[in-house]
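EI: anyone free to look at a 466-residue chain?
SC: sure, send it
EI:
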Amino acid sequence: MSNEQGPEQTHRTLAERLAEGKLLRKRVPRSAHAPWAPAPDRPDPVAMLEASSRGRAPELVPIRYGRMLPSPFAFLRGSAGAMAFDLAKTPATGVRTQLCGDCHLMNFGGFGTPERNFAFDLTDFDETLPGPWEWDVKRLAASVVAAARALGLSEDNAEEAALACLSSYRRRMSEYAGMHVLDVWYAHISGEALLGLMGGGKARPKKGKESSAVPGPPAKARAHSGDRLFGKMVELVEGQPRFRDSPPLIFHPPHGDGLEKEVPRFLAHYRETLQDDRRRLLSRYRVADLAMKVVGVGSVGTRCAILLLMAGDDDGLILQYKEAGPSVLEPFAGKSKYHSHGQRVVCGQRLLQSASDLFLGWASDEQGMDFYFRQLRDMKTTVRLEGMSASALRKYAATCGWALARGHAKAGGSAAIGGYLGRGDAFDVAVAAFARAYADQTERDHAAMVRAVKSGRLVADKDAGG
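SC: here you go
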């Protein structure tokens, strides 16, 4: 398979790499991406869902199902494993890059960079792994159509949004292919792109150029900074800061489960994965509390905790550490080269994102379970899809397509992908057709889940918050 990340790529000109990408059309015509039909050996969707729940905390699995139940779009968010099986059956050029692995509309958003700028990018990397670039693009496009339907928009609106996403990915990839490597590496998308969709700002990114960072993050983003969560999440108990329990989503582990004893060794392992200056920074904090936290949709039931660290009476930091198991892509794209899946997640995030969290690192516990660390909600801001207009969805989908192209280009492969995509819309039209057909498949899978809940085969907490 072709891969522009290898050192051998430096010996070929841009024109040669673009031409090689264009030649791939003979082997995999762009129109070949349009059809979708389930493979004869495709497992029952409910069985795939049950299989993906094995190894999770059984008491939390109903929350996961409850969060997938409201719509086919919600189901799609929680069924990355099932779609990985399906994507592996679809045509691919053989060009590989670093994948998000769970690329859908809700895994993009705004966040704070270490320089305290407000950026827009991919935000979830639990499933990241090198693989065919088409898989991320197709999952994102399918999520656009599923989201449009969940919003009650017309099929024409859904297709327009998918085409906006795909056209943006293609055009941006072409731009990145012609840029110097360092310029691609430094490229970023300002949070202004997000603010306009939220109605929080008038500025828009200039067409065809990387927008510069906004002078300061919006109030909503500042409110989600780790050091400003204390009012909502932390209380004083006998004069000591402590997380507020909010079961079943935030709760303290029972005494005697060993977590408190494990934390010092665990943190020592984590510190070793940080740069020396950041180790020095972390050493100024002490652990004040620990609580379990339920997160996301696809991640519900995996082990996730939050750590309250204090450097003074009113000087705190909240870190999240989250279980990292094998990527759902591994059976189809190959095993990770990293021994630790926490390291896999961290390295994939650093490669794809324009800037990553200051405290991003990994560790393994005494049982050999892998985790990754990051700040909790550091200026994190997401676009709410509820009530979104067709016009806003088109703009948001296009911005997500842009961010995905930037991540793929940074990881490597922009010339081959750009040469294959070309200037016309043949690929856009084909994948939009795939997205509509796969959204239909998602509706059938979701209906099967609804029947399984009604029959009692699956137990869902229908009041679980997303």
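EI: The CA atoms of residues 199 and 392 lie 10 Å apart.
SC: 👍
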